[in-house]
Amino acid sequence: MEPKPVSFSQTTITELMIPSYANFGGKIHGGILLSLMDKVAYACAAKHAGTYVVTVAVENVEFLQPVEVGQLVSLLASVNYVGKSSLIVGIRVVAESIKTGEQVHTNTSYFTMVAKDEVTNQPTTVPPLLLETRDEVRRFLEAMKRKELRKIHRTELDNAKTSLEVAESLNLLMNERAVVACEL
């Protein structure tokens, strides 16, 4: 299977934020932005894989700045990492004022996608990623590190769940905004 360069599948979606996208506070609803991020992640990953892909994980969704009605939102996606059947797509979201041209970085997220065989619906191999710039190499290495840290975090969280004794851990709630109203 021939490697494909990052540039082959880089994808940008730009959409005008309209009033029906707003939440009760008058800002663009986070769910609208998540939906757009999922769309651009799909387009980018499917283009690289050359087949259907599904979203299996979303990492680091932190809204740094609000998005306003009337702004243009651009979602810039590129494949940062490929495994055997998985791809990690990095997405940078930028909101732009149409009137002033001022651009604001609103968030960066990482979507893990898995390529599926369209007949068997089983995971299928994706082409290797051709890294042509120092930034592409850095992003690939960062994605490898994030994968490693996610695995460690998942293991630690699973261990904490199995070893946590509720009755003996009640003292942890002393300075929290929680009221226990049940028999333990």
Automatic annotation (TrEMBL):
Q: Specify one Pfam family.
A: 4HBT
One GO MF term on file is:
long-chain fatty acyl-CoA hydrolase activity
Sorted alphabetically, the Gene Ontology BP terms of this entry are: acyl-CoA metabolic process
Occurrences of domain HotDog ACOT-type (ranges): 7-119
Cellular component, GO annotation: cytosol
Classification via PROSITE patterns: HOTDOG_ACOT
Query: What does the UniProt keyword field contain?
Result: Hydrolase
What domain of life is recorded for the organism? Bacteria
The record's section on InterPro entries has: Cytosol_ACT, HOTDOG_ACOT, HotDog_dom_sf, Thioestr_dom
- What's this protein's family per the entry? Belongs to the acyl coenzyme A hydrolase family.
Q: What is this protein called?
A: Uncharacterized domain 1-containing protein
